[in-house]
Structure formats: structure tokens, C-alpha cells
Design a protein that fits this description.
By secondary structure, this protein is α+β, with helices and mostly antiparallel strands. The protein is built from 11 helices and 11 strands. Strands 5, 6, 7, 8, 9, 10 and 11 form a 7-stranded mixed beta sheet that branches. Bound molecules: 5-O-phosphono-beta-D-ribofuranose. The site of 5-O-phosphono-beta-D-ribofuranose (RP5) has 12 residues, from strand 5, strand 8 and strand 10.
Length: 359
């Protein structure tokens, strides 16, 4: 795609400048000496003339510079949009969010919703989403428990003017509950998610080249809830900046060396999570199996690449809600199977940052 756009631009520049040059040559014929005029111009000028005519025709056909300027602007704009490291339209990215319509080990069965039935703007008479809220969410209701991480049971008590979504303005259903920006999921209320509407997470993608094989690897943890390999991310705490969340979650889930040893590894984590080593690759919806019609996951994904020394030394030890941790070799993206949309996020990150992590 980039190549195509670049070649279109290059073609236009070449054609325009060449036609200028040949026009110049044509005009310059008026300064040929009388002798030159009798003999006719030299061959190279004749060749340039005919090329000039061809170019002039092309230029004429395209209505000169105005068309070129429009083309160049379109090419530059599409190039900018294509390379922008974020997904602003979740529908484009997640399509019909299959994982959010699928099973979760702690959820009852969802009301079946086919791909074409996800759209809110299409009537679905008889749509009866399964109502589900996990007791743990009610237990950690912030209006009933100090330090609770969940919204009150009654969504009308939530001030949604203070809540933003990476997916744009939050839409509401006829009962005033936030509505999933992608579409129907077959389940309403909050399931296991604490917040009505967007629930914010942050995910670090930590990569290295294997010290011996030189193959690209990334840190993944095995989730306790679904048993799937995933990025070592987690929920953003109230008032926390995502750059702190990615480091905290990485430390809790992947470098759980215990408090007594933590200080020994601080300098490594300082180096790894140095803002000069950070690259934000995505902010938006996650196709998470816990999503419902009224509560969904959104994440900010940051990529960090380890120097070869750091990559060798970081002590991976699983902790918190991670059962295992490992450096996973990325052999090919098609076979990469990770929790929610993490495989897609890894691909996006590595496409975006490929040049930063060349060996
Ligand atoms: C995913 O859930 C996010 O991408 C993040 O990795 C994770 C956060 O949830 P917990 O791991 O805290 O359950 O949607």
C-alpha cells in the first residue's frame, strides 16, 4: 500500500518535472542558430521533443497542476492515515467482534447473535440478551465499599460526562445504559467488568531478539481465567497514567521477583520502560470475551524493545493473575493465538515499529 502510494507520488513528480523540462527544450528551439534550423535539431533534442509532446498530452489530459496537487494531497493524506498507529474506527478493526459474542468460562450462555445481527441500527425483534453481573462486581461497588473498583449497580448514579471512550462519544440505550460501540454481544449488564461503558486497560508489548537464535520474541503470560496466553496487561487504576500501568502490570505479572529482590531489578525496568524506548501503538476497543452490550474493554498498547543485554537478563517470573510467563517466539503471525485481540495488537505493533527494532 505504502509502496503504491509512494510510486503514484513519484510518477506524478517525474511526469510533471519531465514535461516541464521538455517544454523548456521546446521553447529553447527558438534560440537555435540558423544553421541548426536548416539542418534540423540534433537527434537528442528531437527525442526530447517527442517525449515532451507525450508528457504534454498527459499533462493536458490531467488538467495540469490542479489535478496533480489534488492527487498529491490525497496520497499524502492516505499515507498519513495508513501509518497512523491507532485505530479510530473500531468497526473497521474488529468487524463484528466475534470474541465478545463468544463464550467465557465464568459467563452463562449468551443470547446468540450472528455477525449480521450485531448492528444497533438494524432492528432485531425478539433480541433478549442474557442478563449477567458477576457477584464480585457487586461486592466491590465503590459506593458501598471503600476502595471498591466497580461502579454502583444503578447506572443512573454514574456521571458519564466524566467518562471518555477511545471510540468516540458514548452512545446510550433507551434505558440510559452505555451501548457497546461495536454492536450487540448477546449479553447485557456488566458481566465481570466493573465499569458501565468503557473499562480501561493498558498492555505492554515487550520484545527482544533471542540471544542465541536471533529470533524475535515477546513476553506473554498465561491467564488464570481462560488459560490463554496474553499480553501482561491489566486495568488502569483510578488516576493512574497508562505509562505507569504498563510498568506496574509487567512487574506484577511477568517479573514477580518478590519485594526483597525488587530493588535489584529496578534499574532494568527503568531502562526498559524509559519513555525514549516507548512507542504507543494503539488506543481503542478490545474484542474481549468479557464484553457485554453495556460494558466493554478498551486499551492503550505500548511497545518496548529490550537491548540484547537487557533481553538476556530480565528475570521472568509469573505472578498476580498470571499462571505462567515466557518469551514467545514469533514465527509467523497467522499462527499466533493470544487472548482477546492481542495477536492483532502484536502484529499492529510490529508493523508499526519494525524499523525501531532492527537487529
Ligand atoms: C484485555 O484485558 C486487555 O487488553 C488487558 O490485557 C486485560 C485487562 O484485564 P485483566 O487482565 O486485568 O483481567 O482486554
Amino acid at each position: 500500500m505504502k509502496l503504491l502510494l509512494a510510486s503514484v507520488c513519484a510518477w506524478m513528480v517525474v511526469v510533471s518535472s519531465s514535461s516541464n523540462a521538455s517544454m523548456l527544450l521546446m521553447n529553447n528551439r527558438s534560440v537555435l542558430t540558423p544553421l541548426d534550423s536548416e539542418l534540423g535539431p540534433p537527434l537528442w533534442i528531437q527525442w526530447c521533443d517527442s517525449m515532451g509532446l507525450a508528457y504534454a498530452m498527459v499533462v493536458e489530459m490531467h488538467k495540469l497542476w490542479f489535478a496533480y496537487i489534488v492527487y498529491i494531497l490525497i496520497a499524502i493524506l492516505s499515507y498519513g492515515v495508513y501509518t497512523k498507529p491507532q485505530a479510530t474506527s473500531p468497526r473497521n478493526v474488529y468487524g463484528d467482534h466475534p470474541t465478545s459474542r463468544g463464550p467465557h468460562p465464568q459467563y452463562p450462555e449468551r443470547y446468540p447473535v450472528s455477525s449480521s445481527e450485531t448492528y444497533w441500527n438494524q432492528d432485531l425483534p425478539g433480541y433478549k440478551p442474557t442478563v449477567h453481573i458477576d457477584p464480585i462486581v457487586l461486592k466491590f461497588d465503590c459506593t458501598k465499599r471503600e476502595g471498591g473498583w466497580a461502579d454502583p449497580e444503578d447506572h443512573l448514579l454514574v456521571d458519564f460526562t466524566q467518562r471518555c471512550s477511545y471510540c468516540g462519544p458514548i452512545q446510550f440505550d433507551s434505558n440510559g445504559r452505555p451501548r457497546n460501540p461495536i454492536g450487540r454481544t448477546g449479553m447485557c449488564d456488566r458481566g465481570l467488568l466493573g465499569k458501565w461503558g468503557p473499562n480501561y486497560a493498558a498492555d505492554p508489548i515487550v520484545t527482544r531478539y533471542h540471544p542465541e537464535t536471533g529470533l524475535l520474541q515477546l513476553v506473554v503470560i498465561k491467564r488464570v481465567d481462560t488459560g490463554e496466553w496474553a499480553l501482561p496487561g491489566g486495568m488502569v487504576d483510578a488516576g493512574e497514567h497508562v505509562t505507569d500501568t504498563v510498568r506496574r502490570e509487567f512487574q506484577e505479572e511477568a517479573v514477580n521477583v518478590g519485594e526483597e529482590h525488587a530493588h535489584e531489578y529496578q534499574h532494568m525496568l527503568d531502562e526498559l520502560f524509559d519513555h525514549r524506548n516507548a512507542c504507543t501503538v494503539y488506543k481503542g476497543y478490545v474484542d474481549d470475551p468479557r464484553n457485554t452490550d453495556n460494558a466493554w474493554m478498551e486499551t492503550a498498547v505500548m511497545h518496548f524493545h529490550c537491548s540484547s543485554e537487557l533481553g538476556r537478563m530480565i528475570p521472568l517470573t509469573a505472578g498476580d493473575d498470571a499462571a505462567q510467563v515466557q518469551w514467545l517466539t514469533i514465527e509467523d503471525f497467522d499462527s499466533l493465538q493470544l487472548y482477546a485481540s492481542h495477536a492483532w495488537l502484536v502484529k499492529l505493533a510490529l508493523d508499526t515499529v519494525a524499523t525501531r527494532i532492527s537487529k
